[in-house]
């Protein structure tokens, strides 16, 4: 999503942009739908795919870019190999979106970039502590486009079996370990002891779905935890969450939080990774320690207790989003990095 938003923003400003991607992947599909140039190119697997290398070299011959912006690990090696011997050599910039520690292979690849764009201060720290020179690392927050909510969210709640008027805590994240839904579910059990009408909606899919559903069932809260799966209608659902909650123990920035702030939703989240770049504790929502269900439950209950607090956090979050975290701000910062 951030790749497409960046490329569209650059195109609107008059730049020529081409996306190199797996022809049938979601990036190619979304890019073409947004009116971007996504030619049919050969893409293989792994760092040393001859198919990918040939495709990148063909793209360099026909498109002749000034800048190559790489957004995933295997693309780094393909770009490094493809530009060898080119004069002049295109500038190479990479984006890093996760706060996982750098492996030796990643360090090797990132050190061969002209600049590395980190999506949060936490990712900057990971890159520098991982061995990259600080002058090579630039902070460019991810952003999402500002847009109005889509009507009909309350009807979607009804379709999910949520009674009218019930408080709803929402979450949007892949069901994987670092998103730590287990902490959210354990916190939900504590919340429901005080607010038994509350419901929790978890949007997303992933390998941990079955074990997370089992955890909710073992805590006797399966009826109040809705596993809504992958949703194409989040712009209708997120605006009607009473609180947006992200419980990650590792997080580059968390663009679903930005969506919630765009729609004036108060956010309760952990202090993982780059989340504090978006959420200001006590101003736009609440931040608590990672892997602490009790602290998360207390923050949710405190926020749910006051309609005024819900409204205040939501409005402050939208104001912060408009100042710092829109796709327009991301595009401007990215172009400044290119320059």
Outline of this structure?
This protein is of the alpha/beta class. The chain is built from 15 helices and ten strands.
Architecture overview:
This protein has 339 residues and is an alpha/beta fold. It is built from 15 helices and ten strands. The strands form two sheets. Strands 7-6-5-8-9-10 form a six-stranded parallel β-sheet, with helices on both faces. Strands 1-2-3-4 form a four-stranded parallel β-sheet, sandwiched between helices. Helix 5 (104-110) links the parallel strand 2 (91-96) and strand 3. The radius of gyration is 21 Å and the shape is elongated.
The number of strands is 10
Strands side by side in the biggest sheet: 7-6-5-8-9-10
Mass-distribution shape: elongated
Q: Which percent band covers the strand fraction?
A: 5-15%
Tell me the distance between the termini: 23 Å
Entry keywords:
6-stranded parallel beta sheet; alpha/beta; 4-stranded parallel beta sheet; 339 residues; 15 helices
What's the layout of helices and strands?
Blueprint: H1 2-12, H2 26-33, H3 50-63, E1 67-70, H4 73-82, E2 91-96, H5 104-110, E3 115-118, H6 121-129, E4 137-139, H7 153-159, E5 168-172, H8 181-194, E6 199-203, H9 209-218, E7 225-229, H10 234-237, E8 243-246, H11 255-262, E9 267-270, H12 275-278, E10 285-288, H13 293-304, H14 307-324, H15 327-338
Parallel strand pairs: 1-2, 2-3, 3-4, 5-6, 5-8, 6-7, 8-9, 9-10
């Amino acid at each position: 999503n951030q790749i497409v938003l960046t490329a569209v923003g650059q195109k609107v400003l008059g730049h020529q942009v081409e996306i190199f991607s797996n022809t049938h992947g979601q990036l190619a599909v979304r890019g073409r739908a947004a009116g971007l140039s996504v030619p049919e190119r050969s893409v293989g697997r792994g760092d040393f795919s001859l198919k990918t290398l040939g495709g990148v070299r063909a793209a360099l011959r026909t498109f002749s870019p000034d800048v190559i912006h790489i957004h995933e690990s295997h693309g780094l090696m393909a770009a490094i190999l493809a530009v060898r011997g080119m004069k002049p050599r295109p500038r190479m910039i990479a984006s890093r979106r996760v706060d996982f520690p750098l492996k030796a292979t990643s360090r090797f690849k990132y050190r061969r970039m002209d600049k590395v764009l980190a999506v949060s201060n936490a990712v900057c720290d990971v890159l520098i502590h991982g061995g990259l020179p600080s002058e090579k690392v630039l902070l460019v927050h991810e952003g999402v486009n500002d847009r109005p909510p889509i009507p009909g969210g309350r009807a979607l709640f009804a379709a999910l079996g949520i009674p009218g008027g019930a408080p709803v805590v929402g979450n949007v994240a892949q069901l994987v370990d670092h998103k730590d839904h287990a902490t959210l579910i354990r916190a939900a059990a504590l919340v429901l002891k005080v607010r038994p009408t509350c419901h929790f909606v978890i949007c997303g899919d992933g390998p941990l779905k079955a074990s997370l559903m089992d955890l909710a069932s073992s805590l006797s809260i399966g009826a109040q935890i809705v596993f809504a799966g992958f949703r194409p209608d989040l712009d209708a659902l997120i605006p009607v969450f009473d609180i947006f909650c992200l419980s990650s123990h590792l997080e580059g920035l968390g663009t679903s939080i930005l969506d919630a702030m765009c729609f004036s939703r108060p956010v309760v989240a952990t202090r993982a990774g780059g989340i504090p770049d978006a959420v200001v504790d006590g101003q736009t929502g609440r931040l608590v320690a990672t892997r602490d269900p009790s602290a998360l439950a207390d923050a949710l209950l405190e926020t749910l207790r006051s309609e005024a607090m819900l409204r205040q956090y939501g409005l402050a979050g939208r104001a912060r989003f408009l100042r710092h975290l829109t796709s327009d701000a991301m595009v401007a910062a990215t172009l400044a990095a290119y320059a």
